[in-house]
Amino acid sequence: MQExxxxxxxxxxxxxxxxxxxxxxxxxARTAAPGYNEPSPVALTAYPNPAHENVYFDFNSITEKxxxxxLVDIQGRVILEQKVxxxxxxxxxxxxxxxFQHGIYFDILSAVMFERRLRLLLNPLDGIKIL
Length: 131
Description:
Blueprint: E1 2-5, E2 8-10, E3 16-18, E4 22-25, E5 44-47, E6 54-61, E7 65-73, E8 78-86, E9 89-96, E10 103-111, E11 114-123, E12 127-130
Antiparallel strand pairs: 1-4, 2-3, 5-6, 6-9, 7-8, 7-10, 10-11, 11-12
């Protein structure tokens, strides 16, 4: 789309001045970071709530690619990391949390140019609550 515009500036007394015509060409473009080739997964869910030993994650992927699921403590230390080779469509991952102490953890699903976080509350007596 190409349009020609002029700008007219008015003074307080009503006088004006008009600019020379300027032609503007509008080009639709979409840019992305290098290496970006996939939108983020459509949905990430974790269940059951509460859980006692395991937590399950489901997410969608539009391409086959490798994701990483990390469990991070409140101080930012990675205490569990699991690689997942996702297929197109729904992917299901199970994490065993029996060995971990109670507390607040973050579960991170990540891939190139993508990261999704969930906050997990782990209490061995009462189960895990997904916040």
